[in-house]
Design goal:
alpha+beta; 6-stranded antiparallel beta barrel
Length: 357
């Protein structure tokens, strides 16, 4: 009976020991995450933008004097030649000013003639000692004054002639009228735009793009194609990038030179395609991005301890399905790209290295 009790006690002790082992603390299972090993790669970016064809040189034509428009001789879309009259304003006021200027010139010339005769007479008398030196000087002064008045009257006459010529609005170059802003009977103010003239010659493809589109250098020349004929590809060179942003649209204007030999009509919609110079960058998938203090960040895995830590980064740009890191991570580091939502700093993770990025 004593032997049975001892055996029973041993079994209970063993049982209690096994029960204690099963309910005790256990090691936490590391969280399984997907990672990517960072590497630098060459990225050639580019894209397509839409714009329209415009003349390389385009001028706004306006009268240099105010007046009522009495004649309009050009229409929108009409081809004109340099010096061709496009419109006229009523010239009666300018003609009257010209008549007054001509009369003033005649009067000044007559006074100059009289002053010249008086001076010559005084000079002859002075040689014979009949007149005084003071009288000769006075005659000379009167002559100089009359000569100055005649020159002033001549200048006023020329100004009046120019003003009369300004009543005719003429084309300053060969080209096409692209806009008209005044009609017959309207009183046009000086410098008010009446016509817009697109000069013949080289053409530009003009694009309105976001600020970041042309921050990087362009590799070689781009191509421009007509929306109406995509098969026609024209070599294009970026000629001008506006240094300012349009406050109304938030875009910058980019002008691309097109050969004048290419028959492209003004205003034709076009598509431009350009490639940036390839650069060494670090590119990560969108799923790798998290946030730290309201700024972009990524989770970095310590290869030695498998512990994770969050690190702020600077993003250079966003692509389809990925983003480009400007600073914050280096090639060879391990970044968590899947399972970042519930991670905590210092947490141990389990992972299998995948293809590098």
């Amino acid at each position: 009976m004593r032997t049975i009790l001892i055996a029973t006690a041993i079994v209970c002790a063993v049982g209690l020991g096994s029960c204690s082992d099963s309910n005790g603390p256990t090691e936490p299972v590391p969280r399984q995450v997907g990672v990517v090993v960072v590497k630098s790669e060459r990225l050639a970016q580019g894209g397509a933008i839409t714009g329209e064809v415009r003349a390389r040189i385009q001028t706004d034509l306006s009268f240099r004097v105010s007046g009522k428009i009495v004649e309009r001789l050009a229409e929108v879309g009409q081809s004109v030649k340099a010096g061709q009259v496009l419109a006229r304003i009523d010239p009666e006021e300018q003609k009257a000013d010209l008549d007054v200027a001509a009369a003033n010139l005649q009067s000044a010339q007559a006074q100059q003639t009289q002053a010249q005769l008086a001076f010559d007479r005084q000079q002859s008398l002075f040689r014979t000692q009949v007149t005084t030196r003071a009288a000769l000087d006075q005659a000379q002064e009167a002559l100089l004054t009359a000569q100055a008045s005649a020159k002033s009257a001549q200048a006023l006459l020329e100004t009046a002639q120019d003003t009369l010529s300004y009543t005719e609005l003429k084309a300053d170059a060969d080209g096409v009228i692209t806009a008209r802003n005044a009609e017959v009977g309207q009183v046009a103010q000086a410098a008010q735009v009446v016509f817009t003239l697109a000069h013949d010659g080289d053409r530009d493809a003009v694009f309105e793009v976001v600020e970041s589109a042309f921050l990087h250098p362009i590799e070689g020349n781009g191509t421009v194609t007509l929306l109406s004929d995509p098969s026609q590809k024209i070599t294009a060179r970026v000629r001008e990038i506006s240094p300012t942003i349009d406050s109304s649209t938030g875009t910058i204007k980019v002008k691309v030179a097109i050969s004048s030999d290419t028959p492209i009509p003004l205003g034709a919609p076009v598509v431009g395609r350009f490639n940036y110079v390839a650069q060494e960058v670090i590119q990560l998938p969108w799923s790798a991005m998290t946030s730290k203090d309201g700024k972009p960040a990524v989770w970095i895995v310590d290869p030695a301890s498998s512990a994770v830590s969050v690190r702020a980064i600077e993003v250079a740009g966003y692509e389809t399905g990925s983003f480009i890191v400007k600073s914050g991570v280096s090639a060879g580091e391990t970044v968590v790209m899947d399972g970042t939502k519930f991670l905590r700093p210092g947490e141990i993770v389990s992972y299998v290295k995948e293809a590098s990025k």
